[in-house]
Amino acid sequence: MEEAYRVERVKSGIQGFDDLIEGGFPKGTTVLVTGPTGSGKTTFGVQFVYKGVESFNEPGVIVTLEERAQDLRREMKAFGWDIEKYEREGKLAIIDGVSAVVGLPSEERFVLEGNLNAEDFLRYIYRVVKAVKAKRLLIDSIPSIAFRLREEKRIRNVLLQLNTILLEMGVTAILTTEAPDPSRGKISRYGMEEYIARGVILLDFMERDVELKRYLLIRKMRETKHQMKKFPFEITNEGVVVYPSGEVY
Length: 249
Hints:
This protein has helices at about 40-55, 70-75, 85-90, 100, 120-130, 140-150, 155-170, 195; strands at about 10, 25, 30-35, 60-65, 90-95, 110, 135-140, 170-180, 200-210, 210-220, 230-235, 240. By secondary structure, the protein is an alpha/beta fold. Strands 6-5-4-7-8-3-9-10-11-12 form a 10-stranded mixed beta sheet, sandwiched between helices. It is globular, with a radius of gyration of 17 Å. The protein starts with 8 loop residues before the first strand and ends in a 7-residue tail after the last strand. The model has no long low-confidence stretch (mean pLDDT about 90).
């Protein structure tokens, strides 16, 4: 008798979220987290990597392309996350992809040079992932890849290359992107990011009693039964908290 197929799950570290995806992300999957500015994409992604180290002993890599590594560390301390501690222990690495682009010197251990092409960019990330034996990866964000590499016209090919190398690395990865107009179905900057990802999560706002409230919608998650409805979430002093019952609003 054949044994039933079982999907190996990776716990997200996002309180309440795993209840929506059968206990966690499928291992080795690539998930796109999209939404407008201020919706919580970076916090969601960093929490996934940080909690992987802290709670599950899974090393991780954060590729920051929108803000300097030192700024990211400082901001995340607001949630009680001591990123530097795990960097010193060799369990977490931040790749600084900002300093060289804006012409600033960097004292970071892992720095993307300013003149890398797409292949070198992906190869460098691959080396760092292997160096720390990472199981989790965050790349924040896809539009910044195109800006950094000055290859917006080639972004489709770059993303296909990225998807291939992520599968080869075997990491569970979160990529972030911008959602220009979710209400009109425009959930990605280039209109194709969602097709290379095996999961798509939209973070957005809704108005309730003249106040903006955050919600989360799982648009796609391969190998997973999930509801296609909006779930409220908040960014608390401990990070992102999702409310599967939907009762908070």
